[in-house]
Amino acid sequence: MKYRPETGCAAQAILRREPLIATAPPAERWLLIESRTPWPRQALTALHGGSRSQTPMASRTPLPGRAVAALSERSTGHVVSRRCAELGIRPVLIRRSGRVDPARRRRWGLVDCRPGRESVRWGDLPSDEHLLDVLDGKDPGTHSAEPVYLVCTHGRHDACCAVWGRPVAAALAAVYPERTWECSHIGGDRFAANVVLLPHSLFYGQVPPARAVELATQYDRSVVVPDLLRGSGAFVPPVQAAQHFARTAGHSLALGNLLPRRIEQLSVNRWRILLASTNGPLAVEVSAHLDTVEARLTCAGSSPAQVRRFELDQLSPDPLRGP
User: Fold this and answer.
1) Sign of the torsion angle spanned by Cα atoms 181, 182, 188, 193
2) pLDDT at position 208, please?
3) pLDDT tens-digit map of 1-21
4) What's the pLDDT at 73?
5) Where are the chain's structural domains?
6) Quick one: which H or E segment has residue 94?
7) Residue 201 burial by Cβ neighbours in a 10 Å radius (0-12, 13-18, 19+)
């Protein structure tokens, strides 16, 4: 079927008012890889060794099927993906919004989002194979105090990401050209436009162009914007849910507030989270439920599908500390 934005997965998620709560995927650390060639559906297959790393895709000589299969496990993309998995790092391709100066050197970025360790480091990327030196610590790069804004525009993964994401990327880049990057798939296609603010790994969903700069401005003030927030990838979903319900109850929107101090799993789908709040420690109990929806969660997906929904069971001052 021909893609139409009004019937795509993102538009349908808005119509059925699907909650954004606690939908941020795990993302404690990131490897940002500048790539100027067209991105395939599986992003890291765009990585190649040696001088072919940025050869336009149309000019590459196609390999026979057996050769591709034989090379796949030794390809740069496969090795980088495997190494990232070992290190707990999420790799994504990035590119500038709009035209790019071809003479400008490509860059890599390494971002740590773990609480208390937040940092951004950048370096030059002479070849895709150089990423292995970065991951092995041989190239430490240079520290940057500037935040990074990622907007998913990976149209070959899901058309909604490109259709909804590109206007948001353009709006951000108009004000913050050095901080803003389009990026490959980050999860949650139906929540397009998806924006990630680093180094705190804040995932925002269903972001309209008119509010893109607002997210960046509030981030500069170390404040979150609750109605568009999917959660922080630095925390597991039950913690994301507990933070959401605490903010809904009136606790501070400050970025450094509501950090988890203890996570206790009470049953298969129920957790008790102790949060450190400016108003004193909070004990938040949340439960997860699977709902069946007559909808496609991606444009290429099938219906019906299942989505996870979190509910607040209890929120109170930590009983071990008193009111």
Assistant:
1) positive
2) 98
3) 688 999 999 999 999 999 999
4) 64
5) 5-227, 235-317
6) strand 90-95
7) buried
Say how many CA atoms lie within 13 Å of 1 toward its Cβ: 9
Tell me, what's the pLDDT at 111? 98
**pLDDT tens track for 158-205:** 999 999 999 999 999 999 999 999 999 999 999 999 999 999 999 999
**Residues 271, 190, 84, 115, CA torsion sign:** negative
Predicted confidence at residue 103, as pLDDT, reads 82
Amino acid sitting at position 142: T
Q: Give the Cα separation of 89 and 190 in Å (integer).
A: 24
What's the token pair of residue 122?
């950048």
Could you tell me which residues come within 8 angstroms of residue 41 by beta carbon, excluding any fewer than 6 positions away? 156, 157
SS3 247: helix
Nearest in space to 44 (alpha carbons), one of 96, 89, 91: 91
Using DSSP, state whether 82 is helix, strand or coil: helix
- Please give the angle made by the CA atoms of 171, 181 and 241, to the nearest 5 degrees: 85
- CA–CA dist 315, 279 (Å, integer): 13
User: What DSSP state is assigned to residue 120?
Assistant: E
The strand order across the sheet containing 259-267 reads 259-267, 270-276, 282-293, 305-317
Give the pLDDT confidence score for residue 49 in this predicted structure: 64
Yes or no: domain 5-227 corresponds to CATH 3.40.50.150: no
pTM passes above 0.85: yes
Angle at 208 between CA 106 and CA 115, to 5 degrees: 60
Instruction: For residue 58, give the DSSP letter.
Output: G
Residue with tokens 């790092």: 89
What residues of the chain score a pLDDT lower than 50?
50-71, 322-323
Tokens of 277: 């709040």
CA distance 296 to 294: 7
128: tokens are 């895709």
How much of the chain is in helix, strand and coil states, percent to nearest 5? 30, 30, 45
CB 152 within 8 A of CB 80: no
CA 213/CA 230 separation, integer angstroms: 17
Find residue 180's DSSP bridge partners.
149
